[in-house]
Amino acid sequence: MSILKKLELEPYRASRVAPELRDRSVEDVTEAIREKVLETHAELVMAARMSREKRSEMVSLVSELIVSCDLYVGRLTRRDLAERIVQELCGLGPIDEFLDDPAVTEIMVNGPHEVFVERNGVLEKTDVRFSSDAHVLDIINRVVGSVGRRVDKSSPYVDARLPDGSRVNAVVPPLSLNGPVLTIRRFPERYSHLKELVSVGTLPAFMASFLQECVACKLDIVISGGSGSGKTTTLNVLANSFGQDERIIVIEDSSEIRVVGHHVVHLETRPENVEGKGLVTVRDLLRNALRMRPDRIVIGECRGKETFDLITAMNTGHEGCLSTVHANSSKDCIARLTGMALMSEESVPLNVLESWIGSALDLIVHMRKHPGGARVVSEVAIVGLDEACIQVARVYVHEEGIVVQELPGWFLSKVGQERAERLSDALFGEAKGR
Ligand SMILES: Nc1ncnc2c1ncn2[C@@H]1O[C@H](COP(=O)(O)OP(=O)(O)OP(=O)(O)O)[C@@H](O)[C@H]1O
Ligand SMILES: [Mg+2]
């Protein structure tokens, strides 16, 4: 018998409380507890919408509330009722089941009749269905509503980050022709340290040590790669290698990066409001961050004009910056950075811009997603200038290992002797010992 049925058969009764609480219907009790929980534990409700762990925390909380209300529930267990209330508060309808599966990293709803998931890195179509567009819309608003956002015809798309770190995007008609579309990226497996990436085969241990040394030497690093190739994860892991005494400013569109146990300030962009006002961009935040005495600046992703300001910051003494860029290779990364920097209204000739990038950026870590779902560091390239011409030299390629005998002169003179020695030792010393 379903919990609902059992509850209907056995209405609530208050055991030893005021008469007005006696014989309340299941709906009344559910509603009263729902209101109480939303009022006192709104954050937990939001978190429980995307996390099973939080959900069982909520079930325990609601069970306690039932006890504190002195309600008597006949033959039924309190847990049954608590679970039903929590399901009503936090459930995600047909896609709820995917929250139980740690192998599911992406849930994609393309209108009511098509739901895909990425499981163990592989895309698969599921037989899950919603009953209608309105049903999908309801679940979308339940997900994004938990962080104070909404979608409807007047604001037909939304980006949101949920308290558990999941990233959500929704687009609804008229922008989407499939009906309401929801994309949820989950991070059931969060990698925080380079050694974890080594253990899943993303990069060899000697490369991890080299990258760690690059971070310690305050090189300016960009992580490039295709969509979902693990750029943000790698950036996050590198940011966790920052020194404990450094002040880190993290700027993102929707916050994903977690730098644990450091002195961190997180800044997040803001979309414009319904009147088209109040927009705050990555570029605005970066300009502001420069006045916040940063030791390190981390930009979640460079997508546009902010690239110009990041390059300028790197060139004006802000060492050790980190960011990511969508690109197909380390060489393509330079082209993308140049193209995006050109989008800024500053009129700088192309060759000047290229040489700025050559002197600003020190290292590119290029990520690739393998067809089986694994993510690898596919190239590591050093960047610099030789006679005012930008140079990009790969020092590591996934299939071949280290592909240079020594670091080129233009790079050594760029980073200075002390750092050059440290970097050479890390790269060649470790590699020899492998
Ligand atoms: N090294 C790794 N090994 C295995 N899985 C990984 C690795 N890095 C990231 N992932 C998984 O791949 C997915 C995408 O990761 P991430 O968000 O870091 O990629 P991205 O390149 O930043 O994506 P986007 O282009 O959307 O910004 C996540 O589910 C993450 O858990
Ligand atoms: Mg990313």
Pairing-aware structural class of the strands and helices?
A: alpha/beta
The helix tally amounts to 15
- What does the average pLDDT come to? 86
Global outline: elongated
* Alpha carbon gyration radius: 26 Å
CATH architecture of the largest domain: 3-Layer(aba) Sandwich
Helix content: 25-40%
What is the count of structural domains? 3
Q: State the CATH superfamily name of the largest domain.
A: P-loop containing nucleotide triphosphate hydrolases
The molecules bound to the chains, other than polymers, are: adenosine-5'-triphosphate, magnesium ion
| CATH-assigned fold name of the largest domain | Rossmann fold
**CATH top level assignment of the largest domain:** Alpha Beta
Query: Could you tell me the number of beta strands?
Result: 17
Strand content: 15-25%
Distance between the termini: 62 Å
Task: State the low-pLDDT regions, or none.
Answer: 1-21
Quaternary form: single chain
Relevant terms:
nine-stranded mixed sheet; six-stranded antiparallel sheet; 17 strands; binds magnesium ion; disordered N terminus; Rossmann fold; Beta-Lactamase; alpha/beta; 15 helices; 3 domains; 434 residues; binds adenosine-5'-triphosphate
